[in-house]
Hints:
- This protein is an alpha+beta fold.
- The protein has helices spanning 24-32, 35-38, 49-62, 112-126, 142-150, 180-186, and strands at residues 9-10, 14-17, 70-75, 81-88, 96-103, 132-138, 154-164, 170-179.
- An eight-stranded mixed β-sheet has the order 1-2-3-4-5-6-8-7, sandwiched between helices.
- A hairpin with a 5-residue loop joins strand 7 (154-164) and strand 8 (170-179).
Amino acid sequence: MNFIGTKILxxxxxxxxxxxxADADIAYKSWCTSDEVSKYVMWxxxxxxxxxxAIYYKWVEAYQDLDTFRWIAEIKKTKExxxxxxxxxxxxxxxxxxxxxxxAEKFWNQGYGTEILKRVIKFLFEEVNADLICATHLENNxxxxxxxxxAHMKYEARLRQRINDKSGMKNDLxxxxxxxxxxxxxxx
Length: 188
């Protein structure tokens, strides 16, 4: 893999850029405290903006490592930030990029998630030279699975009762992936 760090990526409607600490205030208000968003993520809602700022400060520092791939998505026309997408480092040594994303509820169901995921997939396969890209979602969040399918990821597995959701109920974790060979064959 080519550890080239996070670089600016563009889509038709969006710019994907590095996170800044200045983004924390908007993220805090838009999705880090949202009841709807928090249903589908593993982290708890942020108690205050200082929690968000501390996380974003760590994220900015992490850009010093070229194996850090994390973006904030910004609408080109309005400059509104809508959410984040990043790659977990735990499988990078195997050529595998596990992608995770989170978007403000106000931007759901407008195709942004798919647009962002497709662009990040393209970058990871074509520039980083990943072998496999995977992502997971809780069973109670089928919209996230639709994003993965629209980005040409293939359903791979159901990890039964793997995660307790925010209500305390056991939830299956659904896994999707896309190999480099599949990506090249489909010319996505």
